[in-house]
Design brief:
The protein is about 50% helix and about 20% strand. The protein is an alpha+beta fold.
């Protein structure tokens, strides 16, 4: 994988959170309430970042209002079929995050079309 710019990494995180908010893959063992967000771990593995990197980027994106962090109770089946409850933080994209993605896509499209004309 080539080196990515900070903006590319932010785009990857926002796309992961945006698509994760709507498409559940059924890979977790918890009651996920329509899967309307991703955990830090899921983002980390989807975007190929270290734990330290994902923490820094998520903090930045929350501060800038591109994603929001929320906590929800998860029911986890333990041994002897007891139901344990634990809290987990999830991240979901905001309207500003969706706007950022759209602007990024528009600029990328403009640049890719204009680069073609520079060669003639």
């Amino acid at each position: 994988m080539k080196n990515r710019s900070k903006t590319d990494i932010i785009r990857h995180i926002l796309e992961a959170v945006n698509s994760g908010a709507t498409a559940g893959d059924g890979s977790n063992d918890y009651d996920d309430d329509n899967n309307n967000g991703l955990t830090k771990s899921k983002i980390m593995y989807t975007v190929f970042l270290s734990y330290r990197q994902v923490k820094e980027y998520l903090l930045l994106l929350v501060e800038k209002g591109l994603i929001e962090e929320y906590q929800k109770e998860l029911k986890e089946k333990g041994k002897e079929n007891k139901v344990n409850q634990r809290s987990s933080y999830y991240y979901r994209i905001t309207d500003n995050g969706r706007r950022f993605l759209q602007i990024y896509r528009d600029l990328s499209e403009m640049i890719s079309h204009n680069v073609f004309f520079f060669f003639f």
